Amino acid sequence: MKSAKGDKTPRNGDVAVGDSRDDPRNGKTSSPLESTSQSDSETTQILRRGLSSKLQSRQFPKTICPSEIPRALSKSDLASLGLSDWRQLMPQVRSMLFNMRAKGEVEILQKGQLIPTSTTLDDVHGPIRARLVPKKGV
Length: 138
Prior knowledge:
The protein has about 140 residues and is an alpha+beta fold. The chain is about 30% helix and about 10% strand. The chain has helices spanning about 35-55, 70, 75-80, 90-100, and strands spanning about 105-110, 115, 130. A 3-stranded antiparallel beta sheet has the order 2-1-3, covered by helices on one side. Residues about 1-35 have low confidence and may be disordered.
């Protein structure tokens, strides 16, 4: 049976994270991440440290997959954040990367090509990779 056009059914290994009600890009979320500001802050700090560590560990032009950060968390780490699966953190990790790109800290690629800075998080569908912006004069 064919899917209707616009259907958000996962294909080719895509992961279903939730419907539009669970999409932080539209300001709506029912994920455990909205629990308490302390938990949000703790989650953000953990993800920020993970991103920084992974990005620093790769020399330009090597990239990271955003899923490397939440996948590195143990089951007990996830449970302490009120989460059951690393995939619940992916929207936040992607958002953090786009914020870092806006500050000129990282470059985001898709299919090996730089995503133009005019492209927003809402415009990007599918896998992305990220790397630190190369230092000038190096």
